[in-house]
Amino acid sequence: MNTKKIAFIFPGQGSQYPGMGRDLFDKYEPARRIFNKACEVVGFDLKEKVFNGAEEELQKTEIAQPAIFTVSMACLAVLINKGINPVMVAGHSLGEYTAVAAAGALEFSECLALVIKRGEFIREASEKNPGGMAAIIGLEATRVKEVCSRVNAQIGGNSSAVEAVNFNSPIQVVVSGTAGGCEKAVEIAKELGAKRAAVLKVSGPFHHSQFMNPAREGLAEELENHEIKDARIPLVANYTGNQVTSGKDIREALVNQINSPVLWEDSVKRMIAEGVNVFIEVGPGKVLTGLLRRISKDVTGLNIEDENSIKKALGILNEG
Q1: Tens-digit pLDDT profile for the chain (320 aa)?
Q2: What CATH homologous superfamily does 130-199 map to?
Q3: Which CATH fold would you assign to the domain 6-126+212-317?
Q4: Is 207 an annotated catalytic residue?
């Protein structure tokens, strides 16, 4: 294990599924403490909605975001209890809040309360500026930006109908904007040779610089009520792809993240440049592990979401 340099990466909205975290709750006391504390913070039985609720219920932003955060933190608690500690952390969009908590800049309850407020601000901004997102696979970032330019020239008017907002891997970029803009982007992307392009099932134009401005303003004001500590370990920020450690810089990262592109590919490459050779996706699903394979073939990607994945990861980590 001495040669392994580990980063924890945390998933964002879209990774949720019914029953996630149940295995950990049943088997590990640290996970139970996290879930029980989360129920106190949110003011309802989050466990019931996550373990036994309908998929449609879990897709609602006000349920999905605290649920993903809580499950990821439960997974983290088990990992730390097993003696696995990272040298760096990062999270995709919502997952950045889990990374902030994992880095020790905010304690669990306070960070969960912020996640809930962030979801409210995003929902309100989405109601003012209805729209959506679309994933484009098989085109490089420059080509996706060309797609956006063509859409905006046709239907943009006085604003940006669509923007490239999630740079997830060399061949996967997500765009955000009006419903019509996203549909047009899918059409043009396919014309330009995209392997796949599809509108996503999300409730708004997340990370759009103009449409998410009200959410940014609300979050900036809310963060004034919270003391963000210096991180114990470096956090790689979504909006720059660079590492931050000071409470001041982390606050700036959280404010800017909400209406800025997620530079996930750059974030992963930065961690690799710092010597990270093992990435553990901590939380539901394997979305980030899949992206990692497209970014680099030279690092190990693991995921932790249940008892089986924990046993598998521990086995690999203890090799050599």
Answers
A1: 458 999 999 999 989 999 999 999 999 999 999 999 999 999 999 999 999 988 888 888 889 999 999 999 999 999 999 999 999 999 999 999 999 999 999 999 999 999 999 999 999 999 999 999 999 999 999 999 999 999 999 986 657 899 999 999 999 999 999 999 999 999 999 999 999 999 998 889 999 999 999 999 999 999 999 999 999 999 999 999 999 999 999 999 999 999 999 999 999 999 999 999 999 999 999 999 999 999 999 999 999 999 999 999 999 988 75
A2: Malonyl-CoA ACP transacylase, ACP-binding (3.30.70.250)
A3: Malonyl-Coenzyme A Acyl Carrier Protein; domain 2 (3.40.366)
A4: yes
Angle, vertex CA 129, rays to CA 70 and CA 54, nearest 5: 35
Mark whether 92 is an active-site residue.
no
Residue among 15, 207, 267, 296 flagged as catalytic:
207
> Domain residue spans in the chain?
6-126+212-317, 130-199
The strand order across the sheet containing 278-282 reads 243-244, 235-236, 88-91, 6-10, 278-282, 300-304
Q: Write down the pTM of the prediction.
A: 0.95
Catalytic residue among 15, 72, 93, 203: 93
Put the strands of the sheet holding 172-177 in their side by side order: 162-169, 172-177, 132-137, 196-199
